[in-house]
Amino acid sequence: QAQLVESGGGLVQPGGSLRLSCAASGSTFQFRRMTMGWYRQAPGKQRELVASITDTGSTNYHESVKGRFSISRDNGESTMNLQMNSLKSDDTAVYYCNSLNVWYAWGRGTQVTVSS
User: Fold this and answer.
1) For position 12, what pLDDT does the model report?
2) What is the pLDDT of residues 72-102, one digit of tens each?
3) pLDDT digits (tens, 9 = 90+) for 17-36
């Protein structure tokens, strides 16, 4: 069965940086063929797509994170990363990874808290 495990979250001050990781596994998960994305959900808000990356490496970002976040993937390791710089309090949320082609079971996510 396909599994997604997010890691790398934590508590940082405004202006700080974090690097999130997503590990995909399972024989049914054709990672290298999928467009993958990072989502986030803040309290009282709907889940939103933050960044995505296609199988060929084309990237797209939500306007609110352009110039600050960078998404990458390693098809050999079936992993994906999100480098987050110049973090703001509005970035506080639980971050999840998943495919944009087919939604697999959501992982537990990783908490990112930006606060002084």
Assistant:
1) 98
2) 999 999 999 999 999 999 999 999 999 999 8
3) 999 999 999 877 889 999 99
Mean per-residue pLDDT, 51-70? 97
The residues, ordered by sequence, that sit 6+ positions from 109 with a Cβ below 8 Å of its Cβ are 6, 41, 94, 95, 96
Contacts 24+ apart (CB under 8 A), 88-91: 88/14, 88/114, 89/14, 89/114, 89/115, 90/64, 90/114, 91/40, 91/65
Distance CA 94, CA 110 (A): 5
Sheet hosting strand 79-84, strand order edge to edge: 3-7, 18-25, 79-84, 69-74
For residue 47, with 0-12 CB atoms within 10 Å meaning exposed, 13-18 middle and 19 or more buried, which class applies?
A: middle
